[in-house]
Amino acid sequence: xxxxxxxxxxxxxxxxxxxxxxxxxxxxxxxxxxxxxxxxxxxxxxxxxxxxxxxxxxxxxxxxxxxxxxxxxxxxxxxxxxxxxxxxxxxxxxxxxxxxxxxxxxxxxxxxxxxxxxxxxxxxxxxxxxxxxxxxxxxxxxxxxxxxxxxxxxxxxxxxxxxxxxxx
Length: 168
What we know:
The chain is of the alpha+beta class. 31% of the residues lie in helices and 37% in strands.
C-alpha cells in the first residue's frame, strides 16, 4: 500500500482551549480567520456528527465553495471532518484550479491546553479515498500548504488576542 501524504500544522496559542474551540465552531469568529485575504461567508455551520459547514470564499468577483461534513465532534478537544471543494449548489466537485486535487480531505483538529493556559492546536489533512493521481497532486502541494494555513493562523492569533483583551 502507498503511504498517504499527510499535511500537519501545529501551532501553540496563548489562549485557553475553550476560546480556541469557539474560533473553530462559531460562524462570526470562524469567518474572521479562515480564508485569509478573501471574504469568507459561512452559509451554514452545524457542528455535530453529520452536520455541515458550507463555506464561500469571495474575491474579485469570484467565489470558491467548500463543503465540510463533520464526522466527530468532541468539545472542546477534537473535530474531525471531510473537507471538499463544492459547486454553488454545495455538491462535492473537482477543484477548478487543480484537476487532480483530492475530492475529499480527512481533516482532524485537536486542541490540548497545558498548565499555563496555552493551547496546542494540531491539524492534519489526509486525502480520503483518493486516486493515485490525487495522492500525487496532494504530495506535490504539501510544501505550499503552509502559506495559506500560515496566513490564517496569523489572523487566528490576532483574533484570540483581541477576544482575550475584550474579556479582561
